[in-house]
């Protein structure tokens, strides 16, 4: 009981520090370090009424994580991560740039729905559930990992580049554009699923059977995949994935906020242009700026109505391109720019506010899938390792893209295989 009280106290203090650090880092990076006073998208128009709103809803939505133990729920862990990486930075950006109030409240409602569905499930779900392992699942899991690894090696032999790019991340754009042109679409999906789901699953498998030395195999394959298409997200997401897995395994999810505070403080103290660009601008504020840009554009222009999704055969896309390229072309005047945005803003670009509600419910159902199969299972911690990289894409990608391209559905499938492959 005492430990739980200390966790709650730590959560409140850390949340307050996190909010203040984000406010300061926004001001410091854009208006002192880079002097971006006149750059479009990052205005400094402090609105203290909106500050009050931001604080109220940050506290209100944080009450669920204050009351319930995050460490005992995959659903709550993932919604907590979205709260920290999406909602709190958006609240800071909202009041410091004096941005659109209607969209901010749409995001608030989205998180209320996400948390409300958890509370509903919590109230009615049966707690006791037992699973038995089956050799069929073990063989199926091993076969799946082997097939993906074989395809990855084939792709590297045919399309791979030198490991030199691992030490020169700023030059990966040279191979990224080449990869877009020459790699077949089906192989792009397989590489994405491998990097975000299959590699973490193999690490989880070797860790579970305590063959830790074999973990070097998926790490090497991950490096090879990176040299094929130059996606830095593969490298950074795996590092973040392992970090989240470790703190979840040790029931330290409440230390996530102190860790974020330490990270932001370190980045601010280093004052390195590249590190600050990635650690402050890209990680926290580019997604929020793009969210309000999406809202502003699709409030004034026709919405997509899922015409760039699996329904594109039945609905005409008047723009003839997907929403990230629409924003790149018509807002930033860069036709080749892909302005990816989080699942909430993307949902608005398709069906407006109703789309936000629909896609939030769909996301909740996916999280309930992870929750249902992992509840009361001692191997639950490995599900975070298997699925977190694909889940993290929601901060910068649409829900449908995350489910398909980034492999969140594959992650759910692999999680079920993993849980059924081992006895409790």
Give structural attributes.
424 residues, mainly alpha, 2 domains, 16 helices, 72% helix, transmembrane, transmembrane helix, WblL protein, membrane
Write a structural description.
By secondary structure, the protein is mostly helical. It has two domains: 1-127 and 252-286, no CATH class; 134-250 and 340-423, no CATH class. 72% of the residues lie in helices and 0% in strands. The chain has 16 helices and no strands. It has helices spanning 2-33, 48-67, 74-96, 101-124, 135-159, 173-182, 185-208, 216-229, 232-249, 256-270, 273-300, 323-330, 343-374, 380-392, 399-404, 408-421. The longest helix is centred in the N-terminal third of the chain and has 32 residues, at 2-33. The two termini are 27 Å apart. It comes from Caloramator australicus RC3. The chain crosses the membrane at residues 12-33, 48-68, 75-97, 103-124, 136-157, 186-206, 213-246, 252-270, 347-370, 406-422. This is WblL protein.
Give the topology string: H per helix, E per strand.
HHHHHHHHHHHHHHHH
Task: Give the biggest sheet.
Answer: none
Number of strands: 0
Oligomer: single chain
Poorly predicted residue ranges: none
The count of helical stretches stands at: 16
The dominant shape is: globular
Structural class: mainly alpha
**Separation of termini?**
27 Å
- The radius of gyration over CA amounts to 21 Å
Number of domains: 2
Q: Please, what is the average pLDDT? A: 87
DSSP strand (E) fraction? Answer: under 5%
Bin the helical content.
over 70%
